[in-house]
Every structure is written in structure tokens, then in C-alpha cells.
Amino acid sequence: MIKQEFCYSRLNDLDLSMTFYSVPDNSSTKATLLYLHGGGLLYGNRDDLPEAYCQLLIENGYNLLTIDYPLAPEVKLSTIYSCLQESITWFLNNYQTTLGLRNPDYFLFGRSAGGFLTYLLSARHHLLEQKGLISFYGYYDLTNPAFSQPSSYYNQFPKVAPMAAQAMIHSKPIANASINERFSLYLSGRQFGNWLSYLVNNPSEKETYSLTDTELTKLPAAFLAHSSADQDVPVEASRIAESKIPNVTYEEVEKLPHDFDSDLTNGEGHRVYYALIKWLDQTLATS
């Protein structure tokens, strides 16, 4: 597996980069997965997908392009969205010359908050080259009451006061932050029910960045995965999406935590990725 790094844009003096995971000979690539990481839009980094899954996807003909995006609250959701539009444009302009690919076919793939961004881009920036969307334990609706109320799950942990959380915010945009550095910022937001204030300028913007039922019915082919016991993003987010997206495959796992695929000792993660590869092949065959 080859890893190459590219800069697709700059935000002020911040480089926004990508990592391209591929095989030595790209001529047999079926499509490219443009990957968006999770972390509540407040933390995380583009290369958080376990290498075992990267290898599995590449062995089956799917290269990965993992993408930086600027984190909130140093920037708001509008800036994150516009940067990701730029990343897709970069891919379409460079797939042949820079990446050595024979076709521009791509799938958007996100986990958790990355799944949210995948829904948003698929609904509002859908291009012919996009063949489908993949959301692992993602969501599409910021008006979900669970996101604006104190979380009973997160309130089991020691409280992080809003003033302490504010101290973690940088003076300039950043594009990656480890869970150790910034999870407390997310934790505080969920404990006090003010997480969304980090993403939007005013409460009405929650609707602006939520998909309507009509938008769900117009999404491209979708593969969704979620745990019934998800303690962070209610499983209903994916169950409702499954009921509204016309061409959808949904894998629900039982009694596992939010990011169920992060535990490589549990076979459910591998099972779902094999199901994903089968879906990718079928979707390309019928597109």
C-alpha cells in the first residue's frame, strides 16, 4: 500500500491536506473513496481509519483519499462545507494527472461527524462522478433534540465547565486535534447541550444544515451502518434515513458502542466492511 500526501487548499496560513492510499498500479482501481473523519467536528484527523480496513478496500479495488477539513469552533460549519467542496474539485481536476487514476468515479465515505458531512455534500454538492454515499453512525439532522439537550450518557463523566472548554479553542484555524487534546471540548458541549453553538452562528442555522425529507429522497445510492446501542448518535438517525432514501443498504449491529468498527478484535466491524465492498461492487455494476 502506497501513501502519498497532497495539499488541496490553504485557509489563511493553514494547509489543508489529503492522504492518498493506493496500490502500485492504479489501472485496476474501480473507484475512489473520499473519506471524512469523525470527532464531533471539533477534533480528529483524516488518517483515523484503521489500516486493516484501508488495506481491505484497496485489495478490492477501492483507493482511499482521506481529507482534512478545518475544525470548529475556530471556523463555523459554512467554512468546513466550502473547504470540502474545494477538496472534491481538487480530486476531479487531479484524478488523472496527479493520482494516476483512469476514472473520476468516487463515493463519499464518512464516520460519525464525517457521515454528517457526507450526507450534506451528497445532497447539496452532488456531481455525476459521485456514485454513492457511505455513512457509518452518521446523522443528517442537526435539529434532533438529542444534540441540543444535556446528554445523560455524557453526564456520567466528570463535568467539563464551559469556561474550561473555551480554553481549548485556538486563535487560528486548525485541521487536526487528537482525542486527548480536544475530546473534553466535545464532552462539555454534550453535557451542557451547547455543542451546536460551536458549529453555527445562530440557532436557525441548525435547520439550514439539516437535510429535508425531500433531500433524503433524492440522495444517491447509500450504504449506512449503525449500532443499536449507540450512546452518541441515536440509531434512529440511520433507521429514519433507511426508510426515506430510495436506494439504500443498511447494516445494524447489536449492543456495540458508537464507533463499533474501531475495535478490530470484534468481527462485526470486518463483517460490515465486507458487506460494504459487496455493495460498492453492485452499485458500480448498476450505475
Automatic annotation (TrEMBL):
Q: Which residues form the Alpha/beta hydrolase fold-3 domain?
A: 33-260
> Which species expresses this protein natively?
Enterococcus quebecensis
Q: Name one GO molecular function term.
A: hydrolase activity
- Source superkingdom: Bacteria
Task: Determine if Phosphoprotein is one of this entry's keywords.
Answer: no
Entries under Pfam families matching the protein? Abhydrolase_3
SUPFAM superfamilies linked to this entry: alpha/beta-Hydrolases
What taxonomic lineage is listed for the species of origin? Answer: Bacteria, Bacillati, Bacillota, Bacilli, Lactobacillales
Q: What is this protein called?
A: Alpha/beta hydrolase fold-3 domain-containing protein
Q: Which UniProt keywords apply?
A: Hydrolase
